[in-house]
Structures are given as C-alpha cells and as structure tokens.
Amino acid sequence: MAQRPHILHLHSSFDLGGKETRAVRLMNAWGDQARHTIVSGVPEALGACDAIAAGVPYEVAQDPPPLTGRPSVARYEAIARYMRRFDLVLTYNWGAIDGLMARRVFGKNVPPLIHHEDGFNEDEAGGLKPERNAYRRLALGAAHALVVPSRTLEAIALDVWKQPKARVHRIVNGIAVDLYARKPEPRAIPGFRRKPGEVVIGTLAGLRAVKDLPMLVRAAGGLSGKFQLVIVGEGPERANIQQAALAMGIADRLHLPGFLRDPSRFVGMFDIFALSSRSEQFPISVVEAMAAGLPIAAPPVGDVPTMVSDANLPLICSNYGEVYLRDAILTLVNDADLRRTVGAANRARAVAEYGEDVMGAAYARLYAAAMGKPGILPESAP
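Above: the chain sequence. Below: its structure as tokens.
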C-alpha cells in the first residue's frame, strides 16, 4: 500500500447534504495526505464536488459498476473487483449498501470497508422496512465498522440491525464553530435584503420530500407579524415549495436562493432557524445554526431534542405538524430577548461539544486503524 492511502467513497448520491458535507470536510482537512475516488449512485448528482478544496487529489469514477439494481451475483462480483484497487472503502447509507453485500459475497482481497448510516429517506421516514433491516443485518457483517452520528441510530444499529457493540461507533457531526462567530456578509444570499422590523426565519436543507419544506411554508403562513422566510438549498421539491407559498399568500416573503457554499457567511443573517424534516438524526444544519447563535424551532426528530441547549428545549415541538411548528416559531417571532438568550445558550453548547477537530480526529483514527496504519491520516487540519 502506498504511503498516501487511496480511499473509495460509495455514495447513494453526491449532491451537498449532511453526509456529503461531512465527507468533504474530512477530505479538505486531510489535504494531499489521502487520495479519493467518488462514486455516486445517481451519476448526475455530484454537486458536492464543488465544495472540495483546491489541492485535494480526487476523481469522480467514470465507469463504476452500478450500486443499485436487482440482487445479482455478477453485479456483486463486479463491485468487489472494482473495490480491490483501493486501500479503504467507505460506503454511505442505504443507496450504497450493495458495496457491503459485494464484500460479504466476494470478500477475498477486498480492502477494509466502513459503512456510514446518517438517516433515512422519505420511504423509511415513517418506519424502517423489515426486508431492508434483514438485508442490512446480513450485509453489515462484512463491515470493519459502522459509523452513526446519533443516539437514535446507535440504538437501531444495536437493537434492530443486531450489530456487535464493538463494531458500532457513534461520532457526532462537528463543524468549525469559530467561523460562525463572525459577522455575516450582507450580500451573501443573492436577492435577499433584510428589512427593518422584519424577523428572518431561515433553514438549510436539500429540497427533498423527506425535509417536508412545504410544511415549513405552511407553518410560516400562519404567523402574525412581519417576517421573511429563507430556504437555502437545491433539489426536486422547489416547485412544491413555491406552490405552498402561493397557496398561503406568502410568495413575496419566500426566498429560494439555491445552494450556497459556506453557511458561516450567511446563517447569522437569520433570527430563527426552523427545521421541518420528517426524518433526521444529528443534522449538521442545526449545529451550524447553534454555532451562529440562533434559536431552533423544530419537531422532535432524531437527536435534535438532545442536541440543543436546555434553554432551547421548550421550542422543540411536542409532536410533528405545521401547527406545532408554527407555535414554536411564533413564540420566537414575538420575543427578541428570548431569541438572544436561547441563541447564546446554543452557541455555548456548540462551542463546547460540536467542534470539527474532535470529529475529524475520531474519523482519522478509525479509518487508519481499519487500514492497519495508525497515524497515516492527520488527526487535525494542517
């Protein structure tokens, strides 16, 4: 094995979301100390490549074997054959689970593989599918380790997927919290300008069905007072979000600037961060909002109730639904002092617990140990 490891990333898709953001941050932190090949199960979904720093040696695989399709010995064998050229394989979520099955069936000379589970798509947001659980249990036997960011997923891995405790690693998502203390750039969100007397409600999310952003629009439509709603992200739900805003009569208050790099440049322009997802685990967007000193209004999904500060906990809804979310947001809209107090407590929590250095060191140690090369990856950014 070369001194600089060659790492294969098998992603269900590689547009910039939570798991992709974390993977890119690790790649950027390691600089030229590792080489990367990226496979996207959706070949055209490669937006996260734009966030990879200059100087990081990476390539997008041009003709990889398909990650999805009907179970097939030939397809599993092709995936295993492809993986053998690398030093470490990293797989992400259900869309890349066949990488594990390929290693299970054709494991000879296949490098160590670490699987990452960050959450579930719309088709499992209401409950896990028994047939997928059975497949996961079988496939995960081929993994060197399973990494999860949340206590919720850790419990699922142990109790539902029946993974040995020693194989399951919970590593919480971290960010460069110091960057979020800076003053936001006034023109960082194209087309958006703050107006006197208006409260800015914002969120960061891929515009996908599982994020249920039309529900956030409906919740905002029930508010009294002056506000603007900013949804930063891109995806197939854009038209549905716009339609919801038209139906609620707030189309002139909705801003959809698309995907924007480096949230630390603009998150501080929000007064309130709102989450509407049907399924989350340990969302990086919530950590980013906390680091920027924002209060969080959200349903009780994943680890969100345990992520936020104690001061913020009353603003986490008791149940899922637009009325619950509207009431939480309205409490914050009507009380600027509460927004400042809760935001300061969230900022303190993020600084104390969600730093990027701790996360990066944990991943570097785990990946290096899997390759049998302790110290081959730097545990902190140069």
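The chain has a mean pLDDT of 94.
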